[in-house]
């Protein structure tokens, strides 16, 4: 494997920012009656709530993936209050500087943002894409993400629902996977059968460039959707990895060790804290590769949950990263 640089890319939003909330409200008002139920699901506060997960995700990255050269953070003009924005290993990029068409802004659609990841200035050819609620749980070598033949490593998740009678058929992840699959089927005769696991994605800048060459209309349409849309593609979590698979730039590695907690089920909170305590202090061999914590489709209003998650993350990742003030 070449020793070329590996970067990490994050998308982050502060959903409590009054200016951001006002921009979101204005964009919704401009749509008027065009706002569908599908879009409304994507507008849930759960998509934008922050419990400071990003800070601890960066701590986990620095602790367990020291091979990462530089971190790129994409935001809607926002900056975390705790971030050392002038650190030489950090690049903060605003949507207005990333989107080539200003008419596509403002955006509140992660899929739209992901269509332009390859436009990040100075981005390495190989990079790892993180949601801000992804965490590394133990030391990982580079071959967890790119194999000996320099191919991105993909980890299978749940099945994509193709049966219209299945209750998961209309779920947004399956819907986007089917949209991606139709393009790949036309180009390569390939059909996506499994979603990818909810872990950091090993990607290539050149694959995104290829996507824009192959599917410019579809990607531009996704970029133009300020809010989640039924025709959207999911570039980072599905289309780019599977396009790489079709062109021998990625490989399936089966399943990985993942702890994925959805906050809508409050019953997990005490067991989570107990499990993380055991794994990180008493029985390190129990640690998973990755951990993800998110709200699902509805945000928890539980004061206990909102206290417990940052408290647990502070315990698990106590050491500041070089990107913190």
Primary descriptors:
325 residues, alpha/beta, Spore Coat Polysaccharide Biosynthesis Protein SpsA, Chain A, five-stranded mixed beta sheet, three-stranded mixed beta sheet, 11 helices, 12 strands
Structure description:
This protein has 325 residues and is α/β, with parallel strands linked by helices. The protein has one domain (6-257): Spore Coat Polysaccharide Biosynthesis Protein SpsA, Chain A. Helices cover 36% and strands 17% of the residues. It contains eleven helices and twelve strands. The protein has helices at 18-31, 37-42, 53-64, 95-98, 110-114, 172-188, 205-214, 216-224, 235-246, 269-282, 303-316; strands at residues 6-11, 68-75, 90-94, 126-130, 134-136, 152-154, 156-159, 194-196, 201-204, 250-252, 258-262, 290-294. The strands form four sheets. A five-stranded mixed sheet has the order 3-2-1-4-9. Helix 10 (269-282) links the parallel strand 11 (258-262) and strand 12. Helix 6 runs parallel beside helix 9 and helix 10 runs parallel beside helix 11 (303-316). The longest helix is centred in the middle third of the chain and has 17 residues, at 172-188. The two termini are 35 Å apart.
């Amino acid at each position: 494997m070449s020793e070329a640089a590996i970067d990490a890319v994050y998308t982050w939003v502060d959903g409590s920012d009054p200016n951001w909330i006002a921009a979101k409200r204005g964009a919704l008002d401009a749509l008027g009656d065009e706002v569908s139920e599908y879009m409304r699901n994507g507008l849930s506060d759960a998509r934008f709530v922050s419990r400071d997960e990003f800070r601890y995700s960066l701590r986990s990255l620095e602790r367990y993936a020291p091979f990462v050269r530089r971190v790129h953070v994409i935001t809607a003009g926002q900056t975390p209050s705790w971030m050392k924005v002038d650190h030489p290993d950090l690049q903060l990029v605003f949507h207005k500087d990333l989107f080539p068409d200003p008419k596509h802004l403002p955006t509140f659609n992660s899929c739209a943002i992901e269509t332009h990841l390859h436009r990040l200035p100075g981005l390495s050819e190989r990079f790892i894409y993180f949601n801000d609620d992804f965490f590394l749980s133990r030391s990982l070598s580079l071959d967890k993400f790119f194999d000996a033949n320099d191919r991105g490593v993909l980890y299978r998740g749940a099945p994509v629902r193709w049966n219209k009678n299945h209750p998961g058929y209309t779920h947004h992840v399956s819907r986007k996977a089917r949209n991606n699959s139709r393009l790949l089927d036309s180009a390569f005769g390939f059909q996506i059968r499994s979603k990818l696991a909810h872990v950091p994605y090993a990607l290539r800048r050149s694959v995104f460039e290829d996507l824009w060459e192959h599917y410019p209309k579809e990607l531009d349409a996704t970029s133009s959707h300020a809010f989640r849309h039924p025709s959207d593609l999911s570039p980072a979590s599905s289309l780019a990895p599977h396009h790489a698979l079709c062109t021998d730039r990625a490989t399936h590695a089966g399943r990985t060790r993942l702890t994925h907690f959805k906050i809508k089920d409050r019953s997990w909170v005490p067991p989570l804290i107990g499990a993380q305590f055991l794994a990180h202090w008493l029985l390190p061999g129990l640690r998973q590769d990755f951990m993800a914590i998110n709200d699902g489709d509805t945000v928890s209003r539980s004061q206990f949950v909102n206290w417990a998650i940052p408290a647990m993350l502070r315990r698990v990742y106590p050491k500041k990263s070089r990107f913190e003030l």
